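Researcher: We're teaching a course module on how sequence relates to structure. For the next exercise, students receive a sequence and then see the predicted structure as C-alpha cells, so they can try to spot secondary structure elements on their own. Here is the exercise chain.
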Amino acid sequence: MTYPQTNSIAFVLFATGVTAIGGFLFGYDSAVINGANSYLKAHLGLTPAQQGFAGASAILGCIPGAMLAGFLSDRFGRKKLLFISAILFGLSSLLSALPRTFEEFLMARFIGGIGIGAASMICPVYIAEMSPERLRGRLGALFQLGIVTGILLTLFINMLIQGIGDEAWNTAYGWRWMLGLGGAPALLFLGLLFAVPESPRWLAQNGEETKAREIFEKIDGPVHADEEMRAIRRVSGDDEGRLSELFSGPFRKPMLIAIILMACSQFCGINAIMYYSTEIFESAGGGKDAAFTSTVWVGVINLLFTFVAIALVDKAGRRPLLLIGTAVQVIALGLIGWMFHTGQSGVGLLVCVVLFIAAFAMALGPVAWLFCSEIFPNKLRGRAMSVASLTVWICCYVVAQTFPMMNESPSIGPALTFWIYAAVSLFAFVFVIAMLPETKGRTLEEIEADWKNNSPTKS
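Model: And here is the predicted structure for the students to work with:
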C-alpha cells in the first residue's frame, strides 16, 4: 500500500533520529574502554584477570538490562524506559571517571551496562513502531548507524585525550576524561527525549487510541492513521502478552529465528575484530602505528557501509542483503584464516578484514536488529526483543572472553579461529535461505497476521 508524501516526514526523522542516539551511546560504551584500559590498569594496579573483568563489566550489566527492559517497556511504555537508559548511562559515565577502588569502577560500568542493554532492546522497537512501512528499513538502520558512529568518534576522542598529556597524565587523569565524556551524549539524549512522543502502537495496545491516532497522523497523514488503527484493532487482543507465548503457538518460530540470527551476528566474530583489531594487526606483524591506522580504516568502512544498508534495505529487501552480506563474510573470513595460516600480513590482511566489516555493516549488523524488531506482535514486541537482545549480549560476552584464548591457543590459533567464524557465517547464509521471510513493504500488523496464519512470505 502507498501513502501520500507529507511534510510530517520531518517528525518521523526527528523522533527516530533522537532514538538512534541510544545506538551512539551503545557504540561509545563499546569503544571507550579500549582507550582507557591500559591507563586504568596502571592507575589501579590491575592484574590481567582484573583488566579483563573491567572490560567485560559493562557487558555483564547489559544482560540484566536487556532481560528486564522488555517486560518493563511493554508495561510502562518505550519512552519511559529510554529516559531510564539515558540516566543510567550518564550516571555511569560520571561514576566511571571518579572511582577510588576497582570495585567502585566495576559497579559504575555495570550500571552503564544496564542502561545500554535496555537501550539496545528498546531503540529498535521504538523506531520500528514509529516508522511507516515504506521507510521502516532505512529508519531502522539508524540504530546501527548510531552504534558505528559512536565507535568511530570515540576512537578519535580517545586519541585526542591521550595526546593532551604524557603517560603519567593519562594514567592519572586521561582515562577519567575518556570515560566521563560519555555523559555529554547521555545528557543530550535525555534532553531530546522530552520532545519525542510515546510509541503510537504501544499507546493503541494500552487503550490510548486517541493519542495513538494523533501520532499516526503526524507520521503520515489521516489515511495512514485510519489504516494503522484498523490494522491494530484487527490483531490486538484484550489480554496482556506473556513471555510463554513466544515459546509456543504461532510466535515460537519467529522467536527461534530471532535467537539464531542474533547469535550468528555475534559468533561470526564481529566483536573479536571491533574489540581486538589493534592486537590482531600487531600480531600479524604490523607496528603500533600501522595497527592503529588499520583500526581507523575498520571504523571508517563500518560507518560508510552502514549507509549502504540504509540506501538498499527498503529497495532490495532484508533477505537479499543478508544473503549477499553473509556470503561475502564467508569469503573474507576464510581468506583471513588462510593469511594467518600462511603467515601473510600487511595490506592483504587489512583488505580482507575491511571486506568482512563492509559485508557485516551492510547486512547482518543493521538488518538483524531491524528484522527482529519487525516480526513480533505489538503486545509481545518488548519481551521478544528482550530475548533477542539478551542473546546478543550473552554471545558478545562469550566472543570477548574466548577470542584471546582461541587466538593464542597452540591447538587453535588465529587461522582456525577465523575459519570457525567463517563457518558460522556459512550457517547464517543457509539459515537465511531456509527460514527468513521477507518483511519489506509490509506493516507490522500484516507480518503478525502472517505468522498467525502460518504463511510468512519469502519473496
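Model: If you want an answer key for the exercise: The chain has two domains: 1-196, 243-459. Residues 1-6 have pLDDT under 50 and may be disordered.
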